[in-house]
Backbone:
């Protein structure tokens, strides 16, 4: 079984993403990738997992479920109102314990898929725990589970199921379900948790948990029950009504996870990526976000507090275009939060998230 090592963006190397391969070669490579055959032909979401440098289709019944030890490519195809043209968003998602080879392959395959679809998609990078609202909107439930390709998504019967603890947090449709270490100290009064033993599922409602979390948790359990042929029993427990001697606490060993995600915000700024001087340079041009600053002749990195955008001008040089994403990866390594969602779009492409940062 692969030994998991926590994803460290500051040590990552994604040179493949900014490869200087000839476009024709890229297109030929894209056309020979079996996974891309017939993708993007109708509205909907398609998901692929990277497994030992190969792209494999993710089962539709598992859409919305991601393993922290893997990397994925996600294509969303859609149409705008009163327009029959197919439009695309393509994301690569990096699990916290995904290997460097896997997420570099996911990044490269995202570019390849973009080429296959004639450069129409808007490209996005997503890192576990820092996903964009757009990405999460594709799924009724966004679930992160421990494990990866080496352990596989093995179907087990409820009778042989290993006890798992899930943390449910969010509001309305922005609900995330994340598997966390099965420790008693990981419960809190602000959120909802599921202790899943296979045949019996306990829903622990923290005393101050919001109604959306409680309702969506129950919906999620109904989905789990359907997957297990209705066998599991659900017990809903309100924190204020159960005693410290309740049986659920015997299922959770004492202790608390030491993991804590950073919620730091990045500095706002606009950076120009240009080779006008004879060599490719990135330069800060403003500490504010102003759409009027964008220039069709160059590439711009627009850093917001919780997201980063790469805007490619229609007149940008080939070298500027090819190295834009490499530059944003290098740029983020030195930011307070290098894991923020990244969106790469060309002049003329639409992105509500991009337009929102200028308001």
Residues:
């Amino acid at each position: 079984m692969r030994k998991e090592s926590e994803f460290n963006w500051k040590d990552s190397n994604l040179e493949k993403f900014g490869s200087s391969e000839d476009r024709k070669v890229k297109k030929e490579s894209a056309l020979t990738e079996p996974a891309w055959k017939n993708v993007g032909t109708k509205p909907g979401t398609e998901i692929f997992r990277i497994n030992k440098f190969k792209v494999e289709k993710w089962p539709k019944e598992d859409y919305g479920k991601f393993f922290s030890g893997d990397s994925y490519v996600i294509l969303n195809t859609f149409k705008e109102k009163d327009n029959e043209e197919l439009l695309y968003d393509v994301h690569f998602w990096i699990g916290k314990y995904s290997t460097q080879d896997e997420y570099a392959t996911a990044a490269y395959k995202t570019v390849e898929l973009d080429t296959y679809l004639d450069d129409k998609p808007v490209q996005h990078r997503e890192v576990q725990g820092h996903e964009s609202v757009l990405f999460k909107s594709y799924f009724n439930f966004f679930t992160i589970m421990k494990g990866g390709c080496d352990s596989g998504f093995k179907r087990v019967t409820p009778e042989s199921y290993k006890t798992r603890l899930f943390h449910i947090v969010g509001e309305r449709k922005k609900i995330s379900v994340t598997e966390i270490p099965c420790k008693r100290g990981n419960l809190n009064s602000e959120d909802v948790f599921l202790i899943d033993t296979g045949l019996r599922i306990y829903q622990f409602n923290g005393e101050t948990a919001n109604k959306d979390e409680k309702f969506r948790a129950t919906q999620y359990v109904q989905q789990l029950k359907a997957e297990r042929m209705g066998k599991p029993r659900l017990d809903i427990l309100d924190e204020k009504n159960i005693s410290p001697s309740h049986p659920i606490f015997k299922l959770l060993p004492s202790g608390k996870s030491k993991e804590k995600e950073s919620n730091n915000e990045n500095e706002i700024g606009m950076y120009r990526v240009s080779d006008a001087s004879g060599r490719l340079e990135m330069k800060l041009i403003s500490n504010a976000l102003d759409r009027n600053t964008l220039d069709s002749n160059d590439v711009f990195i627009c850093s917001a507090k919780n997201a980063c955008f790469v805007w490619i001008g229609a007149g940008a040089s080939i070298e500027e275009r090819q190295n834009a994403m490499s530059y944003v990866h290098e740029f983020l390594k030195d930011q307070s939060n290098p894991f923020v969602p990244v969106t790469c779009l060309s002049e003329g492409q639409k992105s509500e998230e991009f337009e929102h940062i200028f308001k």
Remarks:
- Confidence is low (pLDDT under 50) at residues 1-5, 15-20.
- The CA atoms of residues 157 and 228 lie 8 Å apart.
- The chain has seven helices and 17 strands.
- The two ends are 48 Å apart (CA to CA).
